[in-house]
Every structure is written in structure tokens, then in C-alpha cells.
Amino acid sequence: MAKTKKSKEVELTRTASREDHARVFNTLQDMVMHARQNLSRFQWDTLCGGSDSETTLRRNRMALDSLALRQRVLVNVSKIDMQTTLLGEKLKLPVFIAPVGNFLQIADPQGAVAVARGALAAGTTAFISTAAKPSIEEVAKSVDKPLLFQLYVRSDRAWMRGFLDRAKAAGYRAICVTVDRAYYSRRERDIINQYLQRADSGDPRHQASLTWEDAAWIKQHTKLPLILKGIATAEDAELAVKIGADVVYVSNHGGRQIDHGQATIEVLPEVVDAVKGKAEVLWDGGVTRGTDVVKALALGAKAVGVGKLQGWALAAGGEWGVTRMFQLLAQEIHATLGLMGVKSIKELNPSWVRPAMHTGKFGVTCNYPVFDETFGAR
Cα separation of 139 and 221, whole Å? Predict the structure, then answer.
């Protein structure tokens, strides 16, 4: 149905209002507080919760907070280089949009279009999930640079062939296969809330039966770079390189899949050692601050993905909120590197971090003290 003049005016007013809000976010805490106000409790839990006891979710945060940054002084840091590359594409900062599924259209009607456009406006890139909406073709048409496609396997190879061909025809420049979701986890907050937002995942036996041969076939079929997301051990990192993966992506689904798993920042060093420079290494796992990004870069990640943080940004300010989120992260990364005495992210290595006592706070928002004082720890 065509939109009436009045409905178009309302939509434009709402869009302008969200843009204005995004522009006044002076800190990530401002942004997250706006997101909390805009989301119902059920929606907030869907975005921020983990599986079962949420032990993996808490470990992601605890492990990051158990690392301290070393600081050198009297270094000329008047100019700092934060640029990196991902499969040959230059990124203005070493942070990208991790693939997030069907939550995006809950946070904003534009869904994946908003996060893709917001990311490119900030000079970085985005992974677009099979489960995201609108269609992968619509998202690709909404931007002027190729994106990265993330595949969930919902049927047999004939189905995969069709979906992969669609992604390639739409201009996606790499295929990311999520490999840590053989089974869909029990996300008890959603179960208790009776707020289940799963998209139609087809026959789950197909995702459960995915093997290394299937991953190799995907690269052979598409002739595109292959990214394997969900690698959490040195053994699997070695196998990923062996079958020709171009990128090994360290992730545990933000603590939303296996419960009582290791924190991703803990397994990052062993994966980097196992890859031996034969593939690029990406990482995600509870990023809420620029310091988290710096720690992961120091331990060998080439770039870092944001999941919950993109959801908060989208809920707070739509497309402009996503761009502002990247701008604020860039400010934090820039200041952190300068205070450490680091002139370029290329200088970072494991010598820049040390084990440290964590602060005793374990929630997903524990890095936002004003938020926790206002809304209570979560």
C-alpha cells in the first residue's frame, strides 16, 4: 500500500529526530542509556542475554577486564594511525559490524540496511546475516561498496548453492560460514519471557551436519574468500587454514551458544599461533569500549566485531546511531593508543597487555558505570 502524505511526514520527522539524538551522544554510555529507554525489557533481554547460565557471556567480559594495558611515555603520539585492512579493503578503524540476525529489525525498521549504511559512513564494513532483514539483495543495493555475507545452513547443498549464488550475484565480496551453531542454544531469558524471535531456520539437521568438507565446497563453489566464524581452538584453526579459509574468525556467539565455554579473548592467542599468518584473524566477544578493541589487536586480531554494541546503537539512533557509535569507539581507541605511547596499531603485540585483577563487576554493561547507576547493573 502506498504511504499517505501524512505518514511520510511522520516518518521523516521520526528519522530527523533519531538523527538529532545520535548527534548528541557524547559517550557510549549516553547511547546505551537511550537504547535502554527505547527497548522493552523483553527486547533488551533478547539482545543482552546469553545461553543457559550465561557463564560464557560473563567470562567474555571478565576475561577482558582481567587484562591491563601497559603504558609508555615521552613518545610523539601527535599522529596516530588506526587504519587496517580486511581481505584487502582499507578500513578507517579496526572495528566492523559483526553478523547479527533478526534482532536488527526489532531495533529499527530499516534493520540490516541501517547498520550497513551506518558502518560505511564511518569508513568500515559490515557482515550481513542470512537471518537479517530486509533481503540480502536489498541491503547490498542500499550501499555503494561490497559487503560480507554470513551463511546459516537451512537446507541441503541445492539450497546452499542457490543462496550462495544470490549473495555472489548481489555483489558480496566474501562468504562467512558460522560454524559454532550445530544446535540452537537454550536462551533462557527468551524462554522465560516467552519472547522468541527466531527466524525460520529450516531443518536444523542441516546446520548440525555441516562438516569441513562442506566448508571447502562452499569456497570452491563461490570462488570467493572464505571466512569461518566461531573458531575457538588451535586445532580447528589449523584445520580452517588447511581447507583454505582466508579468514579465521574467533567468536563464541557473544556467549549465546555453548554455555561454560572459554572467553574469546582467552583463546585468541592460541588461534593466532596456530594460523601462523596463513589467514587473517578476526575476533569478537563482548566489546563495549575502545580499550577492548586495543586488547584484541595486541593479542593478534586484525580487526574486531561488535554485536550487542551495534544493537544498542541501532536502538538508540538508527543508522546515525551506528555511525556515531563508530565515531565514539574511534575516539576511545585513539585516546587509548596515545596514552599508551603507541603511534600505530601495527605496533601492538602481546607485550602491551598483562594479566590483572578484574574489578569484580560482571554484567554486560559493567563498563558503563553511569548506566548501571541509572538503570541497575545488567
Answer: 23
